[in-house]
Amino acid sequence: MKKLIYLDNAATTKTAPEVVEAMLPYFTEYYGNASSIYELAGESKKAMNEGRAKIADVLGANANEIYFTGGGSEADNWALKATYEAYKNKGNHIITTKIEHHAILHTCEWLEKQGAKITYLDVDENGIIRLEDLEKALTPETILISVMAANNEIGSIQPIKEIGAIAKEHGILFHTDAVQAFGQLPINVDECHIDMLSSSAHKINGPKGIGFLYIRKGVKIRSLIHGGAQERKRRAGTENIPGIVGYGVAAERAARTMEERTAKEREVRDYLINKIETEIPYCRLNGHRTLRLPNNVNFSFQFIEGESLLIMLDMEGICASSGSACTSGSLDPSHVLLAIGLPHEIAHGSLRLTISEETTKEDVDFVVEKIKEIVARLRSMSPLYEDFIKKQK
User: Fold this and answer.
1) Which of 18, 51, 21, 19 is nearest to 34 (CA)?
2) Can you give the pLDDT at residue 331?
3) What are φ and ψ of residue 175, in 5° steps?
4) How far apart are CA 274 and CA 254, in angstroms?
5) Is 326 known to be catalytic?
């Protein structure tokens, strides 16, 4: 069997062994419903409270400000829809960016149909917003700023501390989609003036199907899901106790290992970037060179189709992507790459490689060699590349 090299950790990560081990008893031994009153249920409730506290500690938040959801997309939907509902009498204007995850962008499109006015901020060529553009976009009607902490496709890190300060100065709520950043970057909700924050466990070696929305005390938003009194009457539905337990362990593990783990990832990331730029001509690094997630590499290769590259890499046992896993079935080029100014034909030739702490330089050597071979093969079949080379001569 060929070796599998997994380089799509932005899509999902392998669940850590200690996370699985911590979850198992809550499937078969402590399986009570946390909302019930007998002793067995009390074990579930205790575990849920411990998981909530572990996550809160990572953010510098209070445990009662953490509300569990089914994942990051639900948390994003909740933050935007419920804020608009609660504050639309004060104003109907929301500011976001053109490179947000579709959980934000599609929710904003829905809100526009409900009467909201949305400003989609441009980004620079590195995928980072200009703070002066944010300041200019503010109006007396602005009730929410929603800017992701780090981009899921190109890895660029936004200045969320400065954004939070602007929001606080103007009395506007600030939400950040931290699905890619939580556990990869240090985030303190007070230092960054964050009022709401979305996250998802499976991005940090936790289980799928569990996320949370941090809601600062005093933010008056209601439930997105109705039906019961769970999550302090803010999110109905029987709590996913194994998921919550796993999330707590994964968050604690991510915080404990962050410094050493991300230092290793940065070293391997930069090694990968350097090898691609050195060995493969006519390529472009997408995203900021240094202000990027420790595990993210995104390149566009001219004269090829990214989908063909992915299929051929898969045949070599290499798992990668061309962008967000949520849009992998789309034939349209990435909205993120278009927003940073790439033309369609170059955006179509993009490749996202997201490493983990287990990725080695030997893995990188093998992967780059295969990319080089495949890109050369694909270009040899491209009339555009043939014409380009003739003109170079």
Assistant:
1) 51
2) 63
3) -115, 140
4) 27
5) yes
Q: How far is Cα 317 from Cα 320, in angstroms, rounded to an integer?
A: 10
Q: Strand, helix or coil at 112? A: helix
Residue 159: CB atoms within 10 Å:
18
- CA–CA gap between residue 171 and residue 361 (Å, rounded): 48
Q: Which residue among the candidates 108, 283, 319, 326 is catalytic per the annotation?
A: 326
- Per-residue pLDDT tens digits for 12-36: 999 999 999 999 999 999 999 999 9
Q: How far apart are CA 169 and CA 262, in angstroms?
A: 33
**Spatial CA neighbour of 61 closest among 185, 191, 253:** 191
Listed as ranges, residues in the chain with pLDDT below 70 are 1, 323-331
Contact yes or no for 146/138 (Cβ under 8 A):
no
Query: Which parts of 225-351 fold into alpha helices (H)?
Result: 230-233, 241-279, 306-315, 335-339, 344-347
Residues 6+ apart with CB under 8 A from 373: none
Residue with tokens 């572990």: 54
What would the pLDDT profile of 126-180 be if each residue is shown by its tens digit? 999 999 999 999 999 999 999 999 999 999 999 999 999 999 999 999 999 999 9
Helix (H) or strand (E) holding 297: strand 296-301
